[in-house]
Amino acid sequence: MTGDAGTPAVHAEGLCKLFGDREAVTGVDLSVRAGEIFGFLGPNGAGKSTTISMLCTLLRPTLGHAAVAGHDVVREPDEVRRRIGLVFQESTVDGDLTAEDNLRFHAELFGMPRREARRTIAAMLDMVDLTERAGTRVRTFSGGMRRRLEIVRGLLHSPHVLFLDEPTTGLDPQTRVAIWEHLHRMRDERGTTLFLTTHQMEEAEHCDRIAIIDNGEIVAEGATDELKAVIGEDLITLRTGDDDTAVKVLRERFRLDAAAGPGGVRLRAADGAAFVPTLCAELTVPVHSVTVAPPTLDDVFLHYTGRTIREAETGPMTMADLVARRR
Ligand SMILES: Nc1ncnc2c1ncn2[C@@H]1O[C@H](COP(=O)(O)OP(=O)(O)OP(=O)(O)O)[C@@H](O)[C@H]1O
Protein backbone atom coordinates (compact mmCIF):
# COMPACT_ATOMS: atom_id res chain seq x y z
CA MET A 1 0.00 0.00 0.00
CA THR A 2 2.77 2.40 0.85
CA GLY A 3 5.39 3.30 -1.73
CA ASP A 4 9.10 2.57 -1.43
CA ALA A 5 10.28 3.13 2.12
CA GLY A 6 11.29 6.75 2.49
CA THR A 7 9.61 7.94 -0.72
CA PRO A 8 7.08 10.60 0.20
CA ALA A 9 3.51 9.77 -0.82
CA VAL A 10 3.17 13.32 -2.15
CA HIS A 11 5.98 15.75 -2.80
CA ALA A 12 5.77 19.20 -4.37
CA GLU A 13 8.35 21.90 -4.93
CA GLY A 14 7.58 25.39 -6.13
CA LEU A 15 4.26 24.34 -7.60
CA CYS A 16 2.56 27.26 -9.38
CA LYS A 17 -0.53 27.66 -11.50
CA LEU A 18 -1.44 30.73 -13.50
CA PHE A 19 -4.80 31.18 -15.19
CA GLY A 20 -4.03 33.97 -17.64
CA ASP A 21 -2.35 36.50 -15.39
CA ARG A 22 -4.20 35.25 -12.31
CA GLU A 23 -1.95 33.42 -9.86
CA ALA A 24 -4.13 30.67 -8.37
CA VAL A 25 -1.20 28.82 -6.73
CA THR A 26 2.09 30.57 -6.05
CA GLY A 27 4.95 28.25 -5.17
CA VAL A 28 3.62 25.42 -3.02
CA ASP A 29 6.20 23.18 -1.31
CA LEU A 30 4.98 20.16 0.63
CA SER A 31 5.88 16.62 1.53
CA VAL A 32 3.42 14.02 2.80
CA ARG A 33 4.62 10.77 4.34
CA ALA A 34 3.11 7.43 3.35
CA GLY A 35 0.24 6.52 5.67
CA GLU A 36 -0.27 10.09 6.81
CA ILE A 37 -3.61 11.95 6.95
CA PHE A 38 -2.74 15.32 5.49
CA GLY A 39 -5.18 18.22 5.29
CA PHE A 40 -5.09 21.22 3.06
CA LEU A 41 -6.97 23.89 5.02
CA GLY A 42 -8.00 27.17 3.47
CA PRO A 43 -10.98 29.34 2.56
CA ASN A 44 -12.82 28.96 -0.74
CA GLY A 45 -10.70 30.36 -3.55
CA ALA A 46 -7.39 29.84 -1.68
CA GLY A 47 -6.02 27.44 -4.31
CA LYS A 48 -6.75 24.06 -2.70
CA SER A 49 -8.59 22.52 -5.64
CA THR A 50 -6.06 23.87 -8.13
CA THR A 51 -3.19 22.33 -6.14
CA ILE A 52 -4.92 18.99 -5.66
CA SER A 53 -5.87 18.94 -9.36
CA MET A 54 -2.20 19.36 -10.30
CA LEU A 55 -1.27 16.52 -7.95
CA CYS A 56 -3.98 14.32 -9.48
CA THR A 57 -2.76 15.13 -13.03
CA LEU A 58 -6.02 16.90 -13.91
CA LEU A 59 -4.21 20.24 -14.37
CA ARG A 60 -0.70 20.88 -15.66
CA PRO A 61 1.46 23.03 -13.36
CA THR A 62 2.70 26.33 -14.85
CA LEU A 63 5.92 25.99 -12.85
CA GLY A 64 7.45 23.62 -10.31
CA HIS A 65 7.48 19.88 -9.79
CA ALA A 66 5.31 17.35 -8.03
CA ALA A 67 5.50 13.61 -7.55
CA VAL A 68 2.88 11.23 -6.19
CA ALA A 69 3.99 7.80 -4.95
CA GLY A 70 7.39 8.60 -6.46
CA HIS A 71 6.08 9.40 -9.98
CA ASP A 72 6.25 12.79 -11.63
CA VAL A 73 2.80 14.23 -12.29
CA VAL A 74 3.78 15.73 -15.66
CA ARG A 75 6.18 13.14 -17.06
CA GLU A 76 4.40 10.02 -15.73
CA PRO A 77 0.71 10.89 -15.44
CA ASP A 78 -0.47 7.33 -16.12
CA GLU A 79 1.73 5.95 -13.35
CA VAL A 80 0.32 8.56 -10.98
CA ARG A 81 -3.29 7.87 -12.01
CA ARG A 82 -2.89 4.16 -11.35
CA ARG A 83 -1.75 4.93 -7.81
CA ILE A 84 -4.38 7.43 -6.71
CA GLY A 85 -8.06 7.43 -5.83
CA LEU A 86 -10.31 10.48 -6.04
CA VAL A 87 -13.39 11.39 -4.05
CA PHE A 88 -15.19 14.48 -5.28
CA GLN A 89 -17.47 16.57 -3.14
CA GLU A 90 -20.39 16.01 -5.48
CA SER A 91 -21.86 12.53 -5.69
CA THR A 92 -20.57 10.68 -8.74
CA VAL A 93 -22.03 7.26 -7.96
CA ASP A 94 -24.82 6.04 -10.26
CA GLY A 95 -28.17 6.17 -8.44
CA ASP A 96 -29.77 3.63 -10.79
CA LEU A 97 -27.18 0.98 -9.97
CA THR A 98 -26.86 -0.95 -6.73
CA ALA A 99 -23.96 -0.22 -4.38
CA GLU A 100 -22.27 -3.43 -5.45
CA ASP A 101 -22.71 -2.72 -9.18
CA ASN A 102 -21.25 0.76 -8.77
CA LEU A 103 -18.15 -0.81 -7.27
CA ARG A 104 -18.05 -3.62 -9.85
CA PHE A 105 -18.21 -1.08 -12.68
CA HIS A 106 -15.30 0.84 -11.18
CA ALA A 107 -13.28 -2.37 -10.71
CA GLU A 108 -13.79 -3.19 -14.41
CA LEU A 109 -12.60 0.30 -15.39
CA PHE A 110 -9.39 -0.38 -13.50
CA GLY A 111 -9.04 -3.82 -15.08
CA MET A 112 -9.25 -5.72 -11.80
CA PRO A 113 -9.54 -9.51 -12.25
CA ARG A 114 -13.12 -10.64 -11.44
CA ARG A 115 -12.34 -12.83 -8.50
CA GLU A 116 -10.14 -10.21 -6.84
CA ALA A 117 -12.81 -7.58 -7.53
CA ARG A 118 -15.51 -9.71 -5.88
CA ARG A 119 -13.39 -10.28 -2.79
CA THR A 120 -12.31 -6.66 -2.50
CA ILE A 121 -15.82 -5.29 -3.04
CA ALA A 122 -17.17 -7.51 -0.25
CA ALA A 123 -14.40 -6.36 2.12
CA MET A 124 -14.92 -2.70 1.20
CA LEU A 125 -18.69 -2.81 1.70
CA ASP A 126 -18.09 -4.45 5.05
CA MET A 127 -15.55 -1.79 6.05
CA VAL A 128 -18.14 0.97 5.63
CA ASP A 129 -21.08 -1.03 7.01
CA LEU A 130 -22.90 -1.27 3.69
CA THR A 131 -22.93 -5.06 3.27
CA GLU A 132 -26.65 -5.29 3.99
CA ARG A 133 -27.39 -2.62 1.40
CA ALA A 134 -25.08 -4.06 -1.28
CA GLY A 135 -27.99 -5.01 -3.55
CA THR A 136 -29.97 -1.79 -3.03
CA ARG A 137 -30.11 0.97 -5.63
CA VAL A 138 -27.99 3.90 -4.53
CA ARG A 139 -30.87 6.29 -5.32
CA THR A 140 -32.42 5.28 -2.00
CA PHE A 141 -29.24 5.95 0.04
CA SER A 142 -28.80 8.81 2.52
CA GLY A 143 -26.06 11.40 1.89
CA GLY A 144 -23.77 9.68 4.39
CA MET A 145 -24.24 6.24 2.83
CA ARG A 146 -23.45 7.65 -0.60
CA ARG A 147 -20.31 9.33 0.67
CA ARG A 148 -19.17 6.09 2.30
CA LEU A 149 -19.70 4.32 -1.00
CA GLU A 150 -17.78 7.03 -2.89
CA ILE A 151 -14.89 6.71 -0.47
CA VAL A 152 -14.55 2.94 -0.80
CA ARG A 153 -14.93 3.22 -4.56
CA GLY A 154 -11.92 5.54 -4.51
CA LEU A 155 -10.03 2.88 -2.56
CA LEU A 156 -11.07 -0.15 -4.59
CA HIS A 157 -7.94 -0.39 -6.73
CA SER A 158 -5.72 -0.02 -3.60
CA PRO A 159 -4.33 3.44 -4.36
CA HIS A 160 -1.26 4.71 -2.52
CA VAL A 161 -2.95 8.05 -2.01
CA LEU A 162 -6.64 8.81 -1.73
CA PHE A 163 -7.41 12.47 -2.55
CA LEU A 164 -10.64 13.73 -1.02
CA ASP A 165 -12.21 17.09 -1.77
CA GLU A 166 -14.07 18.29 1.34
CA PRO A 167 -15.02 14.74 2.42
CA THR A 168 -17.74 15.63 4.92
CA THR A 169 -19.05 18.98 3.68
CA GLY A 170 -22.85 19.02 3.54
CA LEU A 171 -23.24 16.04 5.87
CA ASP A 172 -24.89 16.14 9.29
CA PRO A 173 -22.62 16.03 12.39
CA GLN A 174 -23.38 12.39 13.22
CA THR A 175 -22.57 11.25 9.69
CA ARG A 176 -19.36 13.30 9.73
CA VAL A 177 -18.21 11.43 12.82
CA ALA A 178 -19.02 8.10 11.15
CA ILE A 179 -17.16 9.03 7.94
CA TRP A 180 -14.10 9.99 9.94
CA GLU A 181 -14.20 6.71 11.83
CA HIS A 182 -14.11 4.95 8.46
CA LEU A 183 -11.29 7.13 7.13
CA HIS A 184 -9.15 6.46 10.21
CA ARG A 185 -9.87 2.77 9.88
CA MET A 186 -8.77 2.77 6.25
CA ARG A 187 -5.52 4.40 7.11
CA ASP A 188 -4.93 2.08 10.08
CA GLU A 189 -5.89 -1.16 8.31
CA ARG A 190 -4.59 -0.46 4.81
CA GLY A 191 -1.92 2.18 5.35
CA THR A 192 -3.52 4.42 2.73
CA THR A 193 -2.27 7.99 2.61
CA LEU A 194 -5.18 10.43 2.78
CA PHE A 195 -4.79 13.89 1.28
CA LEU A 196 -7.84 16.06 1.76
CA THR A 197 -8.94 19.61 1.24
CA THR A 198 -11.18 21.33 3.70
CA HIS A 199 -12.33 24.74 4.84
CA GLN A 200 -13.71 23.33 8.09
CA MET A 201 -11.65 23.49 11.25
CA GLU A 202 -13.28 20.37 12.74
CA GLU A 203 -12.30 18.38 9.68
CA ALA A 204 -8.72 19.64 9.88
CA GLU A 205 -8.56 18.45 13.50
CA HIS A 206 -8.72 14.84 12.25
CA CYS A 207 -5.50 15.23 10.28
CA ASP A 208 -2.02 14.22 11.45
CA ARG A 209 -0.65 17.29 9.74
CA ILE A 210 -2.13 20.25 7.93
CA ALA A 211 -0.99 22.98 5.59
CA ILE A 212 -2.85 26.27 5.74
CA ILE A 213 -3.23 27.81 2.29
CA ASP A 214 -4.30 31.37 1.63
CA ASN A 215 -4.16 33.29 -1.65
CA GLY A 216 -2.40 30.42 -3.41
CA GLU A 217 0.37 30.15 -0.84
CA ILE A 218 1.07 27.87 2.14
CA VAL A 219 1.31 30.16 5.17
CA ALA A 220 1.83 27.50 7.86
CA GLU A 221 2.38 23.77 8.03
CA GLY A 222 2.67 21.25 10.83
CA ALA A 223 0.87 18.96 13.25
CA THR A 224 -2.30 20.65 14.51
CA ASP A 225 -0.96 20.72 18.09
CA GLU A 226 2.34 22.27 16.97
CA LEU A 227 0.49 24.96 15.06
CA LYS A 228 -1.73 25.77 18.03
CA ALA A 229 1.30 25.89 20.33
CA VAL A 230 2.66 28.75 18.19
CA ILE A 231 -0.31 30.87 19.28
CA GLY A 232 0.66 30.16 22.87
CA GLU A 233 -2.19 32.06 24.45
CA ASP A 234 -5.45 30.68 25.82
CA LEU A 235 -8.79 32.40 25.45
CA ILE A 236 -10.25 33.37 28.85
CA THR A 237 -13.94 34.24 29.10
CA LEU A 238 -15.30 35.82 32.27
CA ARG A 239 -18.85 36.42 33.43
CA THR A 240 -18.75 39.26 35.93
CA GLY A 241 -21.10 41.54 37.83
CA ASP A 242 -19.72 44.56 35.91
CA ASP A 243 -18.03 43.79 32.60
CA ASP A 244 -17.04 47.37 31.77
CA THR A 245 -15.15 47.81 35.03
CA ALA A 246 -13.54 44.37 34.60
CA VAL A 247 -12.28 45.38 31.13
CA LYS A 248 -10.90 48.64 32.53
CA VAL A 249 -9.00 46.83 35.31
CA LEU A 250 -7.65 44.19 32.94
CA ARG A 251 -6.40 46.85 30.55
CA GLU A 252 -4.95 49.20 33.12
CA ARG A 253 -3.52 46.77 35.66
CA PHE A 254 -2.53 43.84 33.46
CA ARG A 255 -2.09 45.65 30.12
CA LEU A 256 -4.27 42.94 28.54
CA ASP A 257 -6.35 43.49 25.43
CA ALA A 258 -9.70 42.60 27.05
CA ALA A 259 -13.07 43.27 25.43
CA ALA A 260 -16.65 43.00 26.66
CA GLY A 261 -19.26 41.31 24.43
CA PRO A 262 -22.55 39.41 24.65
CA GLY A 263 -20.66 36.27 25.80
CA GLY A 264 -18.86 38.13 28.63
CA VAL A 265 -15.36 39.56 28.90
CA ARG A 266 -12.80 37.95 26.57
CA LEU A 267 -9.03 38.16 26.76
CA ARG A 268 -5.99 36.11 25.82
CA ALA A 269 -3.20 35.09 28.16
CA ALA A 270 -0.39 32.57 28.19
CA ASP A 271 -1.10 29.62 30.51
CA GLY A 272 -4.64 30.85 31.15
CA ALA A 273 -5.48 28.35 33.91
CA ALA A 274 -2.51 29.46 36.03
CA PHE A 275 -3.44 33.11 35.52
CA VAL A 276 -7.07 32.74 36.70
CA PRO A 277 -6.42 32.90 40.51
CA THR A 278 -4.41 36.17 40.15
CA LEU A 279 -7.08 37.54 37.86
CA CYS A 280 -9.91 36.80 40.29
CA ALA A 281 -7.95 38.18 43.24
CA GLU A 282 -7.18 41.47 41.49
CA LEU A 283 -10.53 42.14 39.87
CA THR A 284 -12.60 44.52 41.94
CA VAL A 285 -15.92 43.17 40.58
CA PRO A 286 -17.73 39.88 41.38
CA VAL A 287 -16.67 37.04 39.03
CA HIS A 288 -19.52 34.58 38.34
CA SER A 289 -17.73 32.17 36.02
CA VAL A 290 -14.44 31.69 34.17
CA THR A 291 -13.67 29.46 31.19
CA VAL A 292 -10.24 28.87 29.72
CA ALA A 293 -10.00 27.51 26.17
CA PRO A 294 -6.76 26.50 24.44
CA PRO A 295 -6.07 27.99 20.98
CA THR A 296 -8.08 26.60 18.05
CA LEU A 297 -7.16 26.19 14.40
CA ASP A 298 -9.31 29.26 13.77
CA ASP A 299 -6.89 31.21 15.97
CA VAL A 300 -4.00 29.73 13.99
CA PHE A 301 -5.60 30.81 10.71
CA LEU A 302 -6.22 34.30 12.11
CA HIS A 303 -2.64 34.51 13.36
CA TYR A 304 -1.13 33.73 9.95
CA THR A 305 -3.58 35.50 7.65
CA GLY A 306 -4.99 38.36 9.72
CA ARG A 307 -8.59 37.21 9.26
CA THR A 308 -10.82 34.31 10.28
CA ILE A 309 -11.48 31.57 7.76
CA ARG A 310 -15.12 32.63 7.54
CA GLU A 311 -14.14 36.20 6.68
CA ALA A 312 -11.80 34.84 4.03
CA GLU A 313 -14.44 32.76 2.25
CA THR A 314 -15.20 34.01 -1.25
CA GLY A 315 -17.58 31.40 -2.62
CA PRO A 316 -17.57 27.66 -3.10
CA MET A 317 -15.64 26.06 -5.91
CA THR A 318 -14.69 22.40 -5.88
CA MET A 319 -12.39 19.97 -7.59
CA ALA A 320 -15.33 18.81 -9.71
CA ASP A 321 -15.85 22.44 -10.85
CA LEU A 322 -12.24 22.55 -11.90
CA VAL A 323 -12.56 19.39 -13.94
CA ALA A 324 -15.69 20.82 -15.54
CA ARG A 325 -13.94 24.14 -16.31
CA ARG A 326 -11.17 22.31 -18.15
CA ARG A 327 -13.59 20.66 -20.57
N1 LIG B 1 -9.87 27.60 -14.67
C1 LIG B 1 -9.73 28.74 -13.99
N2 LIG B 1 -9.70 29.91 -14.65
C2 LIG B 1 -9.53 31.06 -13.97
N3 LIG B 1 -9.38 31.18 -12.64
C3 LIG B 1 -9.42 30.04 -11.94
C4 LIG B 1 -9.59 28.77 -12.57
N4 LIG B 1 -9.55 27.83 -11.60
C5 LIG B 1 -9.39 28.48 -10.42
N5 LIG B 1 -9.31 29.80 -10.62
C6 LIG B 1 -9.09 30.82 -9.59
O1 LIG B 1 -7.96 30.43 -8.84
C7 LIG B 1 -8.15 30.69 -7.45
C8 LIG B 1 -8.01 29.41 -6.64
O2 LIG B 1 -9.15 28.58 -6.91
P1 LIG B 1 -9.34 27.13 -6.28
O3 LIG B 1 -10.59 26.55 -6.83
O4 LIG B 1 -8.10 26.34 -6.43
O5 LIG B 1 -9.52 27.49 -4.74
P2 LIG B 1 -10.01 26.54 -3.56
O6 LIG B 1 -9.20 26.88 -2.37
O7 LIG B 1 -10.02 25.14 -3.97
O8 LIG B 1 -11.48 26.98 -3.30
P3 LIG B 1 -12.79 26.05 -3.35
O9 LIG B 1 -12.87 25.38 -2.03
O10 LIG B 1 -13.84 27.07 -3.57
O11 LIG B 1 -12.62 25.12 -4.50
C9 LIG B 1 -9.53 31.32 -7.33
O12 LIG B 1 -9.37 32.70 -7.31
C10 LIG B 1 -10.24 30.86 -8.59
O13 LIG B 1 -11.22 31.78 -8.97
Keywords:
binds adenosine-5'-triphosphate, alpha/beta, Alpha-Beta Plaits, single chain, Rossmann fold, ATP binding, 327 residues, 6-stranded mixed sheet, ABC_transporter_ATP-binding, 14 strands
Task: Describe what you observe in this structure.
The chain has 327 residues and is of the alpha/beta class. It folds into two domains: 10-221, P-loop containing nucleotide triphosphate hydrolases (Rossmann fold, 3-Layer(aba) Sandwich), CATH 3.40.50.300; 233-294, Alpha-Beta Plaits (2-Layer Sandwich). It contains 13 helices and 14 strands. It has a six-stranded mixed sheet with strand order 6-7-8-3-9-10, sandwiched between helices. A four-stranded antiparallel sheet has the order 2-1-4-5. Helix 3 (99-109) crosses helix 4 (114-127) and helix 8 (224-231) packs across helix 11. It starts with 9 loop residues before the first strand and ends with a helix. The model is unreliable at 314-318 (pLDDT under 50). It binds adenosine-5'-triphosphate (ATP). Residues 19, 22, 24, 42, 44-50, 199, 316-318, 322, 325 line the site of adenosine-5'-triphosphate. InterPro entries: AAA+_ATPase, ABC_transporter-like_ATP-bd, ABC_transporter-like_CS, ABC_transporter_ATP-binding, DrrA, P-loop_NTPase.
